[in-house]
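queue> holo job accepted (pyridoxal-5'-phosphate)
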Amino acid sequence: MEHFQTFQVLPNIPEPLCFLEELSRNYWWSWELDAKELFRRIDRELWENSGQNPVLLLANVPQKRLENLSTDPGFLDHQARVKALFDARIKAPFEGAYQETYDREGAIAYFSMEFGVHESLPIFAGGLGILAGDHLKAASTLGLPLVGVGLFYRQGYFHQRINKDGWQQEEYPETDLYHLPLEKVHDEQGHEIRITIPGPAEEIRAVVWKVLVGRVPLFLLDTNLRENPPHIREITARLYVSDPSIRLAQEILLGIGGVQALKAMGINPRVFHMNEGHPAFSCLERLAQTMEMHHVDLRSAREIIPRTTVFTTHTPVPAGHDEFAPDLVKPYLHPFESRLRVSADEILSWGQHAGAGENSDLSMFVLGLRMSQYLNGVSELHGQVARRMWRNVWPHRPEAEIPIGHVTNGIHIPSFVSRDNAMFFQNRLGINWHRNSWKRENLEEIDAINDMDLWEAHKRCRNRLIKNCRRLLKKQCERRNAPKSVVDAAESVLDEDVLTIAFARRFATYKRANLLLRDLDRLNDILGNTERPVQIIFAGKAHPTDEEGKGLIRHIFKHAADERLRHKMVLLEDYDIHMARLLVQGADVWLNTPRRPLEACGTSGMKAAVNGVLNVSILDGWWCEGYTEETGWAIGKGEDYDAHSDSDLVDSHALYNVLENEVIPCFYDREGGSAPLRW
Ligand SMILES: *Cc1c(COP(=O)(O)O)cnc(C)c1O
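queue> job finished
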C-alpha cells in the first residue's frame, strides 16, 4: 500500500534550547530524574498526552512557549544542570577496566526478539523484553560495551481492549516512526546500511535503525521497504505472530540479518548473547563468517563459536519454545550448504532433539543450547528446572552435571523507582545512588530514612495510582458505552486509605489470576470488611491465541462488574510499562500466584520491592531467593504438586490465610501513630 506523505510544521527550537533536541533523542532522559522533569515542566498536559514522548512533545509545543523558555533563567539553569550530567555520563569514555576490554576485545552483542526500553517504543510484550531493555540501560551506566540487536515492529505488540462481555480484543495501531528517536544507520559513504537474506521465494531486504539508550546503541532491522513485496514487508509488522512462516522469517532476520548488519557496520563483537532461543540462527551466520574470514574448517568453527556465545533461557515450559517444521526451515538453510560445506539435513540436526529422528522439528532452543558454552536460567530454582527439563540434550550426563547454571534476573532500579523514593535515595546517597545499591553500608543509610517521610511518600504514590485508575476506568466504561451510572461510579472507585493489592502480569493460565477468586464468599468477606477493608487492582494481557487466558480475563471482568464488588475490584485494560510503574509504586501488596515452578523469575516483584511495596507470593522464581520474614510473605512452603487442582485448592487456602491472619492485621496495626510502623 502506498502511503500519503504528510508534512508537519515543526516549531523551531530556539538556539538556547537546542540541547533539548539532542536529549530527546537518547532514552537516557527516561531514567534520569532531572532530565525527565525538564521535559515535564515544558508543558505538563502535553507531556502526559504525548505518552511521555519528548520527540512528540517538542513537535507540538507552541512556538510561543519555547520562545518564553529560551529566556527563562530557571529553565535555562535546569537545562544546564541536565546537560552537564549528560555530558559526564554519555560522552565520557568507557570507564576503567571496561574501556580496556573494549579496546582489546570489542563489543558484546545482545540479541533479543523484544526490547522494552520505554512505552513510546512499543517493541516488547513482557518480562523478556523489559529485562533486555534494563540490560541495555545498566550496561550504559556501567560503561559495558554492549550493542543491542532486535527488530523494529511497526505495529508492535497489540493494545488490549475488553468489550462489554469481558472478552479481550486486540488492536494494532501503526507506530508513528517520525515521532520516535530513531535514525537510519549509514555507512561511511553515506549510504543506508542494507542487508539481504535469500528467502524461500525471494530475497528479504532490510534497513537498520539505531536507537540510543544512554551510551548503548540498539540496532533494529526493518523490512518495511518500498522495494520489498507486501508479504516481506509484513515480516516486521508485529511481535509474536502465530503464523509459523512469519515467525520463522522473523527469527531468520533477527539471527542471520542481525549478524550481517553488525558486520556491515564494522562492528565485530567478541561475545554474543542470545536472550532466549529466537536469535539462535545467528550461530549459522557466525560459523560461516568465521570460516570465510579465518580460513578454518567447520569443525574448528564449531569449537570457536560456542566459546563466545552466552544463552539465557527464560521459559520453563517446553511448549513455550519455538519449533519449526523441516520443510519450512530448509529453504533458508540451502545457502549455508556451500558456505558451511555441509548438507542442510546436517544443519537441521543441530537443532533437533536427541533421538527424535531426521524429520522432527527444529527447536530454536536446542539449536541455541548446542551452539553456546555458557547457559543460564533466570533464577536459582529455574536453573534446577532447566537442568531437569533439558537433560535429554545431554543424554550421557547426570542431571547435576547438565551445563545450565543460573543468573537471577535484576531490574534497572531508576526506571521503576518512584520519584518520591528516588529523592530520598539521592538525598542520602548522592547523585550516583543507583550505581551502588549493592553496597551494604548504603542499606544502613536507606534504613535511616524517616518512617513517616517514607509513609507519606508511599501515600502520594497510592493516591496517584488511584487517581489514574479512576481516569482509565472511566475511559474504558465510556468506550464500552456503559450506562451513565456505571461511568459515574468509575469516577470514584477505590479508596485512598485502603490496603491495595495489585495483580498485574500476563494472563497465562499458570499465573492463576483467579486464585483469589476460588472462594467468593471468603473473598467478599475480605474485601467487604468495614473495619479493615481491602481493594484489588488487576491488569494484564492474554496472548491473542490463548483462549484460556482470555477466559481468565472474562472471569475477573464479570466479578469486577458485580454491584457488590465494583467499588473494590478493578480490571484495567492494556497493561504496559507505564501502568506497571504506577502499580509497583502505588500498591501496598504485590501479589504473585504462579503454579510452582513455572515462574522462571517474575521481575515485577523486584520493582515493587524497591518501592517498599511488600510481596505476597508463591515461593517460585526470584522469591525463593528474595523472601525473608522481613521482606514480605510466602504463600505455602514451596511445595510441588502433581495434580493442578490439588495445588490450586491448597494454595488458595494458604493465600486467604496469609491475607487474613498476617497481611491485613499488619497493615492496619497503627499503634503509635498514623503510620503502620511494623509494615
Ligand atoms: C516488569 C514487567 C514484566 C515482567 O514481570 P513479571 O513479574 O514477569 O510479570 C512484564 N510486563 C511489564 C509491563 C513489566 O513492567
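queue> The pocket of pyridoxal-5'-phosphate is lined by residues 126-127, 130, 505, 575-577, 580, 602-605, 607 (CB under 6 Å).
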